[in-house]
From TrEMBL:
Pfam family, any one: tRNA_edit
Annotated YbaK/aminoacyl-tRNA synthetase-associated domain residues: 88-211
Annotated CDD domains: YbaK_like
GO molecular function: aminoacyl-tRNA deacylase activity
Protein species of origin: Ensete ventricosum (Abyssinian banana)
Gene3D superfamilies: YbaK/aminoacyl-tRNA synthetase-associated domain
Name of the protein described by the UniProt record: YbaK/aminoacyl-tRNA synthetase-associated domain-containing protein
Length: 224
């Protein structure tokens, strides 16, 4: 085989390898968009395994209609069979926009760049209370000006948690982000609540006491 023939053979081999890589990426993308992970494992299966490994046995997942978030909160309550709208909660990622330059990740639980806050849909977040809590948590050694908690951009939230908007949950996140649980949720009767289940149309009900044991959140009065 001449030099030209060898070059053509090499080119063909490279094109075949590129095609194989593209096919692999397309397959992975399909699995993610379908709510699946490696080896055909579903989001529900993966999160259930994590919960059980952490000693949680009082939980349940429920699929909701595609237009779930277009419906009034009272209708969403009825779809889930929740006792009240106050039992419907969400997980949101906050970023400290004024953190010290040395604070870039979540390695310091007491002074993290990011926090996930679990709060009721019916409540309003009180960022000032979170600021005061973190200031006290750090023994007042860091200026209050260095705490300014704001909602993280969606793309940042996705990268940190691995979950898209309206699907965020603090179980099985890509990053070990410290969690803040609004104190009002701990006072709900009966003592469980609903939150995102890792997919937009998948919701998770969990016993509050078991959630606290499994996730070890900071319990803070952070709503009004």
């Amino acid at each position: 085989m001449g030099a030209l023939g060898e070059l053509e053979a090499l080119q063909t081999c490279l094109l075949q390898r590129i095609a194989a890589v593209e096919l692999s990426l397309q397959t992975q993308s399909f699995r993610v968009s379908s709510g699946c992970v490696a080896d055909g494992e579903t989001t529900e299966t993966r999160l259930s395994a994590i919960l059980r490994a952490r000693g949680v046995d009082d939980f349940a997942f429920k699929r909701v209609p595609a237009d779930y978030y277009d419906r009034p909160i009272e209708v969403r309550r009825d779809i889930l069979g929740a006792p009240s709208v106050e039992h419907l909660c969400k997980s949101i990622v906050l970023v400290n926009t004024q953190a010290l330059a040395s604070i870039t990740d979540c390695s310091d639980r007491n002074n993290s760049k990011y926090y996930v806050v679990v709060i009721q849909y019916a409540a309003r977040l009180n960022a000032e209370n979170i600021k005061n809590f973190l200031y006290t948590l750090n023994n007042s050694k860091i200026s209050k000006k260095k705490f300014n908690m704001r909602l993280a951009p969606e793309e940042e939230s996705l990268k940190l948690t691995g979950f898209v908007h309206n699907a965020v949950t603090c179980i099985g996140m890509e990053t070990d982000i410290p969690v803040i649980l609004d104190e009002a949720i701990t006072k709900l009767k009966p003592d469980f609540f609903w939150l995102g289940g890792g997919e937009v149309d998948l919701k998770l009900r969990i016993r509050t006491s078991q959630f606290i044991s499994a996730v070890n959140p900071f319990v803070v009065n952070c709503s009004s």
